[in-house]
Amino acid sequence: MSRSSPQTVPLWFSADGLPEIGSLKSDTRADVCVVGAGIAGLTTAYLLCKEGKKVVVLDSKGIGAGETGRTTAHLASALDDRFTELERLFGQKGARLARDSHATAIDRIEAIVRELGIDCDFQRLDGYLFDAPGSDGTAIHGEFEAALQAGFTGLEVLPSAPLPFKTGECLRFPRQGQFHPMRYLAGLAAAIRKRR
Predict the structure, then answer these.
(1) Mean of the pLDDT values across residues 118-132?
(2) What does pTM read for this prediction?
(3) Residue of 18, 121, 99, 117 lying closest to 63 (CA atoms)
(4) In whole angstroms, what is the distance from residue 129 CA to residue 146 CA?
(5) Which of 1, 52, 58, 153 is spaced 20 to 30 Å from 132 by Cα?
(6) If DSSP codes are grouped into helix, strand and coil, which group holds residue 75?
(7) CA-CA distance, 1 to 24, in Å (whole number)?
(8) How far apart are the C-alpha atoms of 67 and 71, rounded to whole Å?
(9) Euclidean distance between CA atoms 173 and 171, whole angstroms
(10) How far apart are CA 123 and CA 178, in angstroms?
């Protein structure tokens, strides 16, 4: 199975314990078929297995071979699309729904990691958002207001992010997360196989 082009092999692909999945060689029956063996697919499959459902997971390239294997390993409810833009497109209710869904996903991953004892270096940490050099800071203050409206608590405007260079004003988003995504998937895959 080729997880990547020969030019780029993501760091995460060196994870030990990630099972190879073979081709579906015959007809099978299941309550649910999950398409995709990344973070969303295997988390969904695991949760369905816990509910007593018979689940089949299909992926053309293997576990974590898509976006999951190329992720930054950050779990964030502070979204790249910016809450000012989400609010403009979907209103405050839509922006809040986006924040809530991402925050709930981080909480769920944390709970699964604890429940299964998955060694994937999961930790909570702060996330920082800052503008490009030379920005006047108005975007950061607008994002601060929109993020508060979306339901963030503990959000702060700081003079600079804790980096070895000056960022200018930034937002500190508490309780974000990071982990080793492929180790997380290896733990989920093992748990799913035990429940089959």
Answers:
(1) 94
(2) 0.86
(3) 18
(4) 13
(5) 153
(6) strand
(7) 15
(8) 6
(9) 6
(10) 6
